[in-house]
Design a protein that fits this description.
By secondary structure, this protein is of the alpha/beta class. It has 2 domains: 248 residues, 3-Layer(aba) Sandwich (Aldehyde Dehydrogenase, Chain A, domain 1), CATH 3.40.605.10; 181 residues, Aldehyde Dehydrogenase, Chain A, domain 2, CATH 3.40.309.10. The chain has 16 helices and 20 strands.
Amino acid sequence: MSSTIASPHKISTVDPSTGRTLETYAEHDWSEVDARLSRAREGFRGWRATSHDERANALRALARTLRERKGELARLATREMGKTIVEAEAEVEKCALGCDHYAEHGAAYLADEIVATNATKSYVGFRPLGVLLAIMPWNFPYWQLFRAAAPALAAGNVVVLKHASNVTGCALAIEKLFVEAGLPAGVFATLVVASRDMEKIVADPRVTAVTLTGSEGAGSAVAAVAGKNLKKTVLELGGSDAFIVLGDADVEAAAKMAVRARFQNNGQSCIAAKRFIVEAPVYESFSEAFIARTKELVLGDPLDRKTTLGPVARGDLRDALAKQVNDSVARGAKLCLGGSGPSRDGFYYDATIVADVDDTMPMFTEETFGPAAAIVRARGLEDAIALANDSNYGLGGNLWSGDIERAQHVAARLETGGVFINGMTASDPRLPFGGVKRSGYGRELSSFGIHEFVNIQTVWIGPAKDASKVQASAE
């Protein structure tokens, strides 16, 4: 195969708290990519033959290694993309929990399912597909990968990672983790390549399936190439989650959680609450409480444990967020807090709250990725539901109410992959995760996630010679 991946190219990582370059890495040329894909394909042949117990032990070893390396891994993520050190440590721990979950439950998720038919015995088996290409973003540099990799590995697949360029150090650290944990060669590899090279890699016959977390544009482009080559994909894309506060909600509890839901990870999360849709009777009281709680955030050096809000990951992202805020205010929204960056090095942006946002403004119609919240007034319940669903996205959402039965009926009408009532949207290994509409398709995590990248195989043995054997096959 001839090379279309140019070489040499360089990738530099930048500390968003200072704006200064951290490291420069040489991209892999095609000969290196080719070798890594071949090792992955060969590694799959051995890995698929391992038992569930062997895979579980490998996942437990990964969990132990993650915990042993938590401090250095967290510091690396903080330096490369700016999340606070406390949140970075929690992310590494969550990766370990994800590995432990599939170590414990993988065999049960993949157990044969007996089906009663006219056969002596018939059942559904779940077989690994092959090499899974994971195209991952920078905002959760470890968790995004492990929430896809843990179920894939438990199912007998192997994983090749193409990470966002600004977290190349994290990507290489993940590869090192697999070596240190003692997993076989070829089970995991990192490709240090640019996005411009992905079409060829997605189309490569050694790649069996693709999972991508990222922007709508990236997901659409990858899905087109994968579709042309008849490869399974799972896409987790953008989100503009609604945080609905009904008139009977506990306003103080909602406001306290609103701060965490909007500003954790410096506001850079697909499932962060972004549009705060509040019924008119509690609009003023919620807004006041939300603003007061947000003022308690401490903007500063993300390596300082007192800091609760760090910088945005890149300067262009900060500038895009500022434009969305400024354009919304110019159209009549009210700037209640923040709205600018402090006079310091790095890509900082103040915690910002904009009220009286309507459905014509950028902070409502576009995904905001950073520490800025939009408060929207709803005339009543039906208006709140309509506003929440008035989005191209459908990833997650929050609903606050004192009437849980009514809240569950409302949840069923929301066009999202997840609804969290009186709590904050989060991914959990025990629950399926994913969206609808422009937020993508497919699911990660739980039994649903592990079944995305398997061959669901029917096995029929027969025919049965009498009815008693048919009945026995169903027991």
